[in-house]
Design brief:
The protein is an alpha/beta fold. The protein has 23 helices and twelve strands. About 55% of the residues lie in helices and about 10% in strands. Helix 5 crosses helix 20 and helix 22 runs antiparallel to helix 23. The longest helix is centred in the middle third of the chain and has 25 residues. The two termini are about 35 Å apart.
């Protein structure tokens, strides 16, 4: 049983509030002995015209609030609910064992489509750690919504259009190296792009050539289009290798170029609705009634900008997908841009604008600047991943040698790849998304800290216990004996497992995967306390041993489920 939902439904009957409102108000007491859930009555004081403690007393005594196995009490303005430890253990462990690592799935999103736009790197430019934030965050949000039953469409809105491609075409014709383009496409394209700007300082006519080449590209000239397509294809091949390594997927790679041909129709519509006005030669939509500056749609030279393309993209997405949510995972500096775009869509009469959401995030920093690349201030994502995996492999190898382990070099490398990449991903997702990310090698690879290595190690160690039990012919309980798990340490684990499903829903509602990372970190901490304080295979009675093994199984299932939602793989042995 989902006790939190059941309590919310009962409180809704007693208070007249909507169940969803009650759910949002329910709190978890700071100490286990105070109960499992608490409802603050402050919100009812104004309508009932009574003091919150009096309201709490009256509601707590209502017959409508009775739930089997749940005791109700008051603590000042709070109504506290305490669930029988035996009943909660039986309910939670049974549900998890039945669901396995699918625990947390829901059908709340059935029949609804969510578009998540993330990553969106610029073609022909290096994929750096800044791009990783949107990639990792967006991938996790997409997984979370899929877990809740939504039809998720993953969009990679590539930066594959603009005057820079006229420059690249010019540069390639003058200085391009075909062999280098095949062997190391991004660096070759970056090299000639940088060279173009260096040479253009002394030879301004190169800028004219670039504009002419971009004009030809826009007009569909066969030669220019072929070169542009080549640059796009080789760039995507490089990006996809990184995506595959990180377990990141996309359903759609429509970039800015895809929407450019759809902009004239949007401009015509804005004109027909008398929304476009001239301002200093540019065509803009005035948004002063929204408290926003004008949104430029066409620049003074008649060319389009990001807003033009995003307007066309949003309209295309709704026309073709009828989305319930259209989520843009883009940095916080673009907050004003999206507020303007959504406001223009609303003025055009499109109510789907209310379902367009900008999910912003902070900056990426390093504790020290020792780690750098030949690109200057750019830290390439592949370099970061390689360095992290290298450091992780060193730690795992040293630990294995210290324990006299029998892992092969190949096994160590495979484990280090998963744990190292997991460490990078978790660093982006362990705090609120609007906080800046600060990379610290010692901190992110700490096997006892709030890190992916700690969580993955907890999973692997617990799997080891289950394997050892299997070798001794002992299997976890299947549907019975869970009520024996009532000790404080056991109950703390069960209580944190019970809240996992709620953390998934909260993560979706707030676009904050850290709701999940925080919960599985709590589960791991509680479990390791139980592991250190309690015997599992020598617990006494066979029934208690099997019940504790079932608790181990449940912890593994939920840790695996939670880590997968973050985009992190587990390992069975470390």
């Amino acid at each position: 049983m989902d006790y939190k939902t059941e309590i919310a439904n009962k409180l809704a009957l007693c208070t007249g509030l909507e169940s969803d409102k009650v759910l949002s108000l329910i709190e978890i007491p700071p100490q286990l002995d105070m109960g499992d859930y608490a409802f603050p009555c402050f919100v009812l004081a104004k309508t009932l015209r009574k003091a919150p403690p009096m309201i709490a007393t009256e509601i707590a005594g209502s017959d409508d609030l009775k739930i089997e196995g749940v005791s109700v009490s008051c603590a000042g303005p709070y109504i506290n609910f305490k669930i029988s430890r035996e009943i909660l253990a039986e309910s939670v462990i049974s549900d998890i064992i039945t669901a396995g690592d699918k625990y947390g799935e829901d059908t709340v999103g059935s029949g609804k489509t969510v578009i998540v736009e993330y990553s969106s790197p610029n073609i022909a430019k290096p994929f750096h750690v800044g791009h990783a934030f949107t990639t990792i965050l967006g991938n996790s949000i997409a997984r979370i919504y899929s877990k809740l039953g939504y039809n998720v469409q993953r969009f990679n809105h590539l930066g594959d259009y603009g005057t820079q491609f006229g420059k690249l075409i010019t540069a390639y014709r003058l200085w391009g190296d075909e062999k280098a383009l095949e062997e190391d496409p991004i660096n070759e394209l970056l090299r000639i792009y940088v060279k173009f700007h260096e040479e253009a300082k002394n030879e301004p006519s190169l800028e004219d050539d670039a504009r002419d080449n971009f004009r030809k590209l826009e007009e569909g000239s066969e030669e220019e289009v072929a070169l542009w397509q080549r640059f796009r294809d080789v760039s995507l091949e490089v990006f996809k290798k990184t995506y595959d390594r990180m377990g990141v997927e996309f359903d759609n790679y429509n970039g800015e170029s895809f929407y450019s041909s759809r902009i004239p129709a949007v401009v015509d519509e804005l004109k027909s609705k008398n929304l476009l006005v001239e301002s200093e030669g540019a065509q803009v939509v005035m948004l002063e009634d929204e408290g926003l500056p004008p949104c430029i749609v066409l620049k003074s030279d008649g060319t389009t900008i990001y807003a033009s393309r995003d307007l066309a993209a949003a309209k295309y997405r709704y026309d073709n997908y009828k989305f319930d949510k259209n989520i843009y995972v883009v940095g916080l500096p673009q907050q004003l841009h999206f507020r303007q775009v959504f406001a223009v869509l609303k003025k055009m009469g499109y109510d789907f604008a209310d379902n367009c959401v900008h999910v912003g995030f902070g900056l990426v920093k390093f504790k020290d600047r020792v780690f750098s690349t030949r690109e200057g201030n750019i830290v390439l994502l592949d370099d970061l991943l390689n360095k992290t995996v290298e450091k992780t492999e060193e730690i795992i190898r040293n630990n294995a040698q210290a324990r006299g382990g029998d892992m092969s070099d190949e096994q160590i490398s495979e484990i280090a790849e998963k744990v190292g990449i997991g460490a990078v991903i978790y660093t982006y997702l362990k705090s609120g998304r609007e906080k800046d990310i600060i990379f610290d090698w010692k901190e992110m690879l700490d096997f006892e800290g709030d890190t992916a290595p700690y969580l993955i190690y907890t999973y692997a160690r617990t799997r080891s216990i289950l394997r050892k039990a299997g070798e001794q012919g002992i299997a976890p309980s299947e549907g019975d004996g869970y009520g024996l798990l009532t000790g404080d340490d056991e109950y703390a684990v069960i209580r944190s497992l019970a809240d996992f499903k709620d953390s998934v829903k909260k993560a979706a509602a707030s676009y904050e995967p850290f709701m999940i990372s925080r919960q599985i970190s709590l589960i791991a901490r509680n479990y390791n306390r139980f592991y250190n304080n309690s015997s599992i295979l020598n617990a006494g009675s066979e029934e208690l041993v099997r019940a504790r093994l079932a608790l181990c199984e449940a912890v593994c299932d939920v840790l695996k489920s939670g880590l997968e939602l973050l985009g992190i793989d587990v390992v069975e042995k470390m």
